[in-house]
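[step 3/7] inverse_fold.run input=structure_tokens len=137
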């Protein structure tokens, strides 16, 4: 079984539209929070990466498929795992579940950049911490 990151969230009023359904752009926020928590799980943070390595992790592309709607106070689980690495980037698949139902499936391409916005090599220490979560689908 693949090693993955898991993050639980609850849908709040601010996440929904007038009909009480989660607004589609908020799923991107949920996925971002899960990626930040994944970094935390391996002993890192976005601020630490910026301060210690002079790097930022930015989204180059995101493919997202919406399967079902979720509503106010639904409890969700976000599952994330790495599917590939290059010298400067990695791809992460993330799925949002409500119970056993897959609500959203996404594929996010993330790139390490310097303060000038140029791609840089992923620091070896970070790569070593993320590699256990590599799972090829």
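[step 3/7] decode complete -> sequence:
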């Amino acid at each position: 079984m693949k090693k993955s990151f898991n993050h639980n969230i609850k849908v709040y009023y601010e996440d929904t539209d007038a009909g009480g359904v989660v607004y589609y752009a908020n799923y991107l926020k949920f996925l971002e929070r899960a990626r930040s928590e994944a970094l935390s799980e391996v002993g890192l943070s976005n601020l630490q990466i910026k301060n210690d390595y002079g790097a930022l992790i930015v989204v180059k592309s995101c493919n997202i498929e919406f399967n079902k709607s979720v509503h106010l106070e639904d409890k969700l689980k976000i599952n994330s795992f790495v599917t590939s690495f290059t010298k400067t980037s990695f791809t992460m698949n993330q799925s949002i579940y409500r119970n056993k139902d897959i609500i959203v499936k996404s594929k996010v391409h993330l790139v390490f950049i310097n303060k000038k916005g140029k791609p840089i090599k992923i620091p070896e220490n970070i790569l070593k911490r993320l590699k256990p979560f590599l799972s090829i689908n």
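[step 4/7] annotate
Helices lie at 24-41, 46-53, 124-130.
The chain has a mean pLDDT of 94.
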